[in-house]
Specification:
With 304 residues, this protein is α/β, with parallel strands linked by helices. It is 42% helix and 22% strand. It has two domains: 3-31 and 80-303, von Willebrand factor, type A domain (Rossmann fold, 3-Layer(aba) Sandwich), CATH 3.40.50.410; 40-78, no CATH class. It has helices at 3-16, 20-25, 59-62, 91-94, 103-120, 144-163, 172-180, 195-199, 206-215, 256-278, 290-303, and strands at residues 40-47, 71-78, 82-88, 125-130, 134-141, 186-192, 217-223, 237-241, 248-252, 281-285. A hairpin with a 6-residue loop joins strand 8 (237-241) and strand 9 (248-252). The chain is elongated, with a radius of gyration of 23 Å.
Length: 304
Amino acid sequence: MEVEEVFARFREIKAGIKSTRKAASISFGEHKSGFQGTGYDIVGVERWRPGEPLKDIAWSLSLRTYPEKLYKVARMEPKELRTLIVVDLSYSTLFQISQHASKAVLLLDLIGVIGLTHAKMNDPVGLLGFSDRVELFLKPKLGSTHVFYMAHRIFDKLRLEQTYPSKRRASFPVAFEFVAGLKARHSVVVISDLVDLINDQESIDFRQLSRLASKHDITMLILDDPAEFRVSSRLGHIRIADMETGEHTVVPARKAAAVRFDIEKERERLRAALRRQSGIDSVVLAPHGYFNELSKFLAQRTAR
């Protein structure tokens, strides 16, 4: 796949979400303000009382009642909803089984769907890429041009990993510590196959995640590629390799389905723990039919 093909897919996605209604159906997070666009919306006004700082007085609101009554702005909310897409750039995510249907292609498509949807709604979108370190960070900005630039940067990482495999693992504490440093409220969308979390669930700090989820709206989109364990014959043996540790395991071909079942079982246990202990919702998405699954997942979240 070339970058021109990625941009062509993005243009198709952009054309598909032209209507605001369709864009809203796959929007993450919740606007605290009733208005959209840049700037702030006043959502809380209180009576100013003697003894409080004079600088708190909202003179534009107090002119008609001065000097009997003075008011202050108690709370302001940004009209825009900043979205940060946090993407797992470990080797297991970027590895391509197929040119047209793999976790890497699905990752790019999801960046396009999420980014272009929020660009349509005039919300700034940013990108955090991580492995066992922060690979790249692009501050949230407005406009579809920024989303195309994000895709270009991810595509460059994909091509580099194919040419010079680094086989880096995903360290989720690295990503979560970065998110913890964000001052403003964000809608945080984590995109990963969760391979490293499934293999090392003891490393999860659910308390930290719970604190982050109380400040930010966090969701997880889990990449899945059924082709990873698809075999053409049940005869003989297959070699299964951990793409990030290099460890090899030989199993009978007839047990490939059982191996995948065990992985899915552990993944569901992890998803349940994230929901129960940290309040983080997640959905498993495969290359085929991901848009409908994503829309249904977000509709269910909104209905709660």
